[in-house]
Amino acid sequence: MEQSEMQAPLPHRFTSAPPGPKGPIAIPGIFIRWGNCCPRENGESFFSPLPHLPNDAMDTGILLLGAVLAVTIILFVSEWVRIDMVAIMASLSLAWLGLISPMDAFSGFASNAVIAMVAVMILGYGIERTGVTSRIADAIIRHAGTSDQRVVATTSMTVGLLSSVLQNIGSAALFLPAVRRIGKQTRIPVSRLMMPMGFAAILGGSITMIGSSPLIVLNDLLRQSDAAPFSLFAVTPIGVPLLAAGVLLFAFAGDRILPRREEVVKRTSVAEIWGIDHPLRTATITPSSSLVGKTREEAFFKIRYGLDLLAIRSLREITIAPSRATRFAEGQELAFIGPEEGFLKFIRESGCISPGPESRFKEILDGEGYGFAELIVRPKASLIGKTMREIRFRQLFSIEPIVHQRGETETRADFSHMPLAAGDVIVAFGAWDTLRLLAGHKDLLLLTHPEGDAVRHGMAHLAVLIFAASLALTVTGVPLSLALLTGAAAMVISGVLTIDEAYRAIEWKTIALIGGLIPLGIAIEKTGAATLIAGALIGGLGGAHPLVIMSAVAVLATVLSLVISNVAATVLLVPLVMIAGAGTGVDPRALALLVAVCASNSFILPTHQVNALLMGPGGYSTKDFIKAGSVMTVIFIGIAVTLIYLLIA
């Protein structure tokens, strides 16, 4: 569920018990009691002081914790060491210094946060492999075109609104592969799409009282203190402007605060490995075109322009890998891959016209039915010693050869005259159905499984149903980790994914980062640092203007949510600010709502689950989050404080 599911132990050093009757509060994945009636395994209660920990030990612990936290932040920002390794080093340091137990140091890897992230990665992978994300991406592109601003705004607003009723980590996971596809199709770097989408997912949680864990917890806390809870849409006048501000920030200032680096991904597709992942381009033959009446062999696409002709469309008939004797005619549409400059030169010299990215022909070939695969000539094959021209390779197999490799020699120009030999590798384009037939061919061996095999045709509805059911379970009170991991298991059991694909879907760097950071929150709580800071700040606000008090509370909630879970920050601060509000004349409910809203103001560091999930795919560094997140944080606090002051306080 966001950072809330990191499950750092909840704060326990209240100077006075929060108002209201003692009793349990039911929060998914957490069990809380007011007062001293909920003992831990070691005999301590959540809200009682540690009798065995003297003040000087507490002071020493806080100083040591401050040193570890400072070094961790420096390493995060400097990037001298990979951030996942920094997180693990921090958790180990806390254990060796005695600030947390060894079990606490490793508890992050068994936390709700990590289990939920593992599960949501698997669920997102299942959604991607059934073709759902490609349809989402295509719908967004049809609406927004290829403009940076429109794509960012459309994607972010969609994710934000979805996040108002769903878990924001689930919304981000659903759109993660779709954003990758949008970036590839529009040639917009994913670093300019991922962060706005992630921030919108976090902001969207502030639109309804069920959109984020802090807001859900808030109403439980208010009921326990005999205060009136907020209605479902009470926070909507605050959440909608917050989401709109985030969308507008990146739509109009994204050039200045977002990095322009390309997506950092493993080169795993056949096209990427062989360096032929050019965008597919189409051209229509006009009546005045010089191609009319010529054959493919006479056009010299490869020699003159460096282009590979993949297919021809005549009316509604599509021919993959047209033969060299194919004669061109007016109205035919040709599909190529190759360098952009070569394609533009071809358009100028041939008199053809390009319909652009909206071409239906391009959309078909870019879809799930076609792609690239590697083939190898079998030993003792009947093709050995013969050229592709002699065997009429295109007509025989209905696939277009793009690259030929023999040993270390790679040929991308015309290789139709080269005799084939055992072990020759051919990279070809074709329909998945055709390529699959070659898996058992006597002459050619399918070296890699067609990428289309990853698309489970006919399983899209099942994958969406499993994903939706997993998120729906969380609304009923089932812990997020249990609900999502059940969904991930269902993906495998139902055949949407294989177990090996599920393991490959997990970004282990992200898991190590979150698992290593959770012990920091535990140490901050155990040493009393969080309560000390909160009590000192709240105690010094007497006599200040309500806006000053609210601004201080907003800043405190924001800072605490960066280093401890946002549920823990909410549970810690709500009772304190309600007491402070009663003594300063500020509406206690307004301060409580401000805490719950600002507990989701986690943009500066990649400690929030959504930010951590997108850090790897977007190729972001900690500096990127500091740069964009600091601007978003200031805007967030300004809007939240102002609107709550005007509408509620």
State the low-pLDDT regions, or none: 1-53, 263-267
Strand content: 5-15%
Q: Average pLDDT across residues? A: 80
Number of helices: 28
What is the class of the domain at 281-365 in the CATH system?
Alpha Beta
Can you summarize the main beta sheet? 5 strands, antiparallel
As for the CATH topology of the domain at 281-365, it is Alpha-Beta Plaits
Within the largest sheet, what's the order of strands?
A: 9-8-10-7-11
Fraction of residues in helix: 40-55%
> What's the overall geometry?
elongated
**First-to-last CA distance:** 29 Å
Radius of gyration computed on alpha carbons? 29 Å
CATH superfamily of the domain at 281-365: Regulator of K+ conductance, C-terminal domain
Q: Specify the CATH architecture of the domain at 281-365.
A: 2-Layer Sandwich
Name the structural class: alpha+beta
Number of DSSP strand runs: 11
Compact summary:
By secondary structure, the chain is an alpha+beta fold. The chain is built from 28 helices and 11 strands.
What does this structure look like?
With 649 residues, the chain is of the alpha+beta class. The protein contains 28 helices and 11 strands. Among the domains are: 281-365, Regulator of K+ conductance, C-terminal domain (Alpha-Beta Plaits, 2-Layer Sandwich); 370-453, Regulator of K+ conductance, C-terminal domain (Alpha-Beta Plaits, 2-Layer Sandwich), CATH 3.30.70. 54% of the residues lie in helices and 9% in strands. Strands 9-8-10-7-11 form a 5-stranded antiparallel sheet. α22 runs antiparallel to α27 and α26 (588-598) runs antiparallel to α28 (622-647).
